[in-house]
Amino acid sequence: MATTAEKIIGTQPDDRGHFGVYGGLFVAETLMEPLKGLRLAYEKYMQDPEFLKELDEDLANYVGRPSPIYFAQRWSRELGGARIYLKREDLNHTGAHKVNNTIGQALLAKRMGKTRIIAETGAGQHGVATATVAARLGLECVVYMGAVDIVRQEANVYRMRLLGAEVRSVESGSKTLKDALNEAMRDWVTNIDDTFYIIGTVAGPHPYPAMVRDFQTVIGREAREQIQQQAGRLPDALVACVGGGSNAIGLFYPFLDDAGVGIYGVEAAGDGLETGHHAAPLCAGQPGVLHGNRTYLMEDKDGQIIETHSISAGLDYPGVGPEHAWLKDTGRAQYVAITDEEALDAFHALTKIEGIIPALESSHALAYAAKLAPTMESDKIILVNLSGRGDKDMHTVAAREGIEI
Amino acid sequence: MSRISQRFSDLREQGKTALIPFITAGDPTPGITVGLMHDMVSAGANLIELGVPFSDPMADGPVIQRASERALEHHVSLHDIFQMVKTFRERDQNTPVVLMGYLNPIEVMGYATFAGAASAAGVDGVLIVDIPPEEGEELLQSLRDKAIDQIYLLAPTSTPDRIGRICNAASGFVYYVSVKGVTGSSQLDTAAVAEKLEQIREKTVLPVGVGFGIKDAATAAAVSQLADAVVVGSALVSRVEALQETPDKIGPALAEILSGMRRAMDAVH
Questions:
Q1: pLDDT computed for residue A5 by the predictor
Q2: Distance in angstroms (rounded) separating the CA atoms of residues A82 and A75
Q3: What share of chain B is helix, strand, coil (3-state, %, to 5)?
Q4: B180 contacts in A (CB within 8 Å)?
């Protein structure tokens, strides 16, 4: 298990957004000043008691925080070994952790006087969470979504439209999340004066990786207290899925200085790392620069970004947040990968044994916990971030089994 | 003096504004690019920008995005582009060539290797859209070691401080992005451009090029009265796209657009 004597919390990023050699600010000149403006506003309001009070009230009364942690007793017993606790982000309003961040950024947008919100989305969870807060704050909202994802996440597209957002189909490149992000950036550069871009994960140019992390660390702060109350001590291992990595960093961050807590980020191995059809840049990629930051990427020998594959649209991204890249290199966190099949097995197990239908993204974390638990003694504790609920995945799971619904 | 500086100094003596066409290397096929470069020079181009295709061209509009996709269908790489420039240089030793693209292909190749190979091929300048000077020290040094000019973008959102800082890092010329937006945007406001160019000229003696939004001979002529260089990209690349099934017609079509611009630009000087 990873141990470290040095304090990590508060050391990253540096003032220009670097997590070690990762992160930074790799954007076209037009965005440099707007990003500086965003950073200054973010730094100012994160010290502003009024802003923080409003954020806390929204998280409590609108999102429904704190989300509970739940001891999955039957499932733990069946697996044999460590006790598995679940952080129930699936119980948040809109059904995933994404809303923790969109609430924060939307309040910031309002303080900055922006009247128009844009976002990118893959599975649609971040798009829904953005459309939701935009509706509530009365802000115009445009969500970019790859044409491929629009087909496989039809229900979320309809939800966003019901919420008053305009969903724009992205037809360029691989027509998935990365292309939606490109298109949102193009919109932003064109409409910089009135538009706030709510990025949904801990990637992008500085200050996004740090800002999104800070909005998501509510997960880990709550969990750290809750597990001590319920189990009487800190967990031995944390497990969370990693696409861009926002739910994972949100859970991990408040535990980084707890040397006895092992940290596992779970990427999507798709059909298997050996097949090349996966979305696991930390496990099988190499460092490069995309979407405003330096991080691990899925790329070919010429530096072109390659198409990714995962059964879970939310993990289907060729990059990863720069802080995860840094945590990997420093050894403080370990990154592993889970295949589509393994994730589906965990999806069914949790559904049948605990009566909780997890998102396919979160099912990757559950699948790794199911591997880890039997290797640990029964007095050990694993805390898994159940980052979202699986209602959105009914079609995908049914189709996989040849059922049409 | 670099080939770029020499070219600008010659043009200044002749009282002319530089015309800089942009095409994506390998669009629609790799074999056509060198011929197009020569055709464009014959039609009045003074410097050529060659786009390096990238899978995720965040600062480009749909026209140049599709050009990248066409080139990448043929797996056009930096190595292929160096070869194109080398071949171009067999017949043309005077026209400067600038590679324009995104950082990641260069990052993967390694800065020093890239600079060495670019220089050996006869590349004169490099414009990387997504690396501001804050992140670019190491790359800049590698390029300087090989006497390659690094061209930087300036934008309507650039403050005087940033303009000064960027111009200090730049050599060859600087490139003012005339609109908030991506390549191929339409609304170019000449008065606003003039105002910004004045700010830029207070900070640098480098020639200033203007691009993004130059569509036809009229806009080229208007901008040529303000700038040292007029950069035209999407207007050419959309012709390449329209004629991709009849590649023999691409060279003459680009030449026609450029010679029209050349005439209009020279007429106002």
A1: 57
A2: 10
A3: 55, 15, 35
A4: 30, 189-193
Interface membership of A61 toward B (CB under 8 Å): no
- Report angle CA A146, A147, A149 to the nearest 5 degrees: 65
**Terminal Cα-to-Cα distance of chain A (whole angstroms):** 44
Q: Is B241 a catalytic residue?
A: no
Q: Which residues pair with A144 in a beta bridge?
A: A120, A168
* Confidence check: pLDDT of A2 > 50: no
What ipTM describes this predicted complex?
A: 0.95
CA A132 to chain centre: 17
- B64 to chain A, any CB pair closer than 8 A? The answer is no
- Decide if B92 is catalytic: no
Chain B contact present for A272, CB below 8 A: no
pLDDT tens for B31-76 read 999 999 999 999 999 999 999 999 999 999 999 999 999 999 999 9
Average pLDDT over residues B182-210: 91
Three-state secondary structure readout of A69-131: EEECHHHHHHHCCCEEEEEEHHHCHHHECHHHHHHHHHHHHHHCCCCEEEEEECCCHHHHHHH
Distance CA B176, CA B184 (A): 14
A interface test, pick of B55, B128, B196 with most A CB neighbours within 10 Å: B55
- Identify whether the C-beta of residue A380 lies closer than 8 Å to the C-beta of residue A231: no
